[in-house]
Design a protein that fits this description.
Layout lengths: L8 E2 L2 H7 L9 E11 L4 E5 L10 E6 L17 E14 L2 E13 L5 H14 L1
Parallel strand pairs: 1-2, 4-6
Antiparallel strand pairs: 2-3, 2-5, 3-4, 5-6
Length: 130
Amino acid sequence: MSNGPLPSTLVFINDLQSLAQGEKSTSSYQASLSVNGYDTSTGTLTVHHAYPPPPHTCVVALVDVNILLSTLKSTDTQIGEWINVIGYVQECEVKLGHKAVRVQAIMLWSDGNIKLADYEKAVKERKEAE
């Protein structure tokens, strides 16, 4: 039996809304997301990934990066930057007509030159295999 944390689960951002009230304190989740904005006063990144494509509800994540401020790079907060986030789901709310999921980030890094179609295919196949 391991005393360490459970491994994170790779998910789409839309999956986070169903996890908001569940395993938030014991399970971490990883997603690849595009930065929409950064509020320096609260240390919150607003991120999204429009998958599956419309007509599905667009979900945004409000990612608290305060514990990562000493390691964040300026490029990690630039609008349009793709990042990977590992974190814990805190809650789900409606903000500006969109569902928003609050996430406490414990790790964040640039996705570099993401091949989005390959990423979406890999996550979809992993989910189907579960």
